[in-house]
Amino acid sequence: MGTPGEGLGRCSHALIRGVPESLASGEGAGAGLPALDLAKAQREHGVLGGKLRQRLGLQLLELPPEESLPLGPLLGDTAVIQGDTALITRPWSPARRPEVDGVRKALQDLGLRIVEIGDENATLDGTDVLFTGREFFVGLSKWTNHRGAEIVADTFRDFAVSTVPVSGPSHLRGLCGMGGPRTVVAGSSDAAQKAVRAMAVLTDHPYASLTLPDDAAADCLFLRPG
């Protein structure tokens, strides 16, 4: 689905959103993103879609770009999916909350059970949620608070859910991800290494770890198509 939570399960669909011109004009600067080369971003977006279809054999669902939602292509923040359940998130930034509307409709059309966040005190960005195949880790960051993490635990009660403090401007999955069914990959920054150490203390499951030079390279999903 292009959203966290399904990475260690089997999936048949991928959900992406087109690149709006507003992102290229620098309207994503509020989220710390530089202005993009629009043509290059659109080419890379097309390559991504092709790999999802041809290399992984996924059915690709593409939402149209929306100029009023410059960060709309970052679909990972809008839902947490595991099995047949999709938790629609409540992004920290009010300007980003309309992004979930199109995602909700697409997931409903796929027949997933939709869970909404009704608590206005909760904030939850999907890229603060890491599913290992055995348990969830939720990063407590600028973007996601304790109440958001509690709602993840309430939604996915078949799995343990632990909270991990995240320092700096990153989401948890901007620091680490799953490189295999039992392998956590993480960047080499202090923030990334602190997060991995916290996860190791909290879990009852053994994971191998792999440290990468750049934090951004650790933001990945391990997929089993089919």
Automatic annotation (TrEMBL):
GO CC terms: mitochondrion
InterPro entries: DDAH-like (IPR033199)
GO molecular function: hydrolase activity
Hydrolase keyword on record: yes
Keyword Hydrolase belongs to the record: yes
Keywords noted in UniProt: Hydrolase
Family: Belongs to the DDAH family.
Protein name (Swiss-Prot/TrEMBL): DDAH family member 2, ADMA-independent
Gene: DDAH2
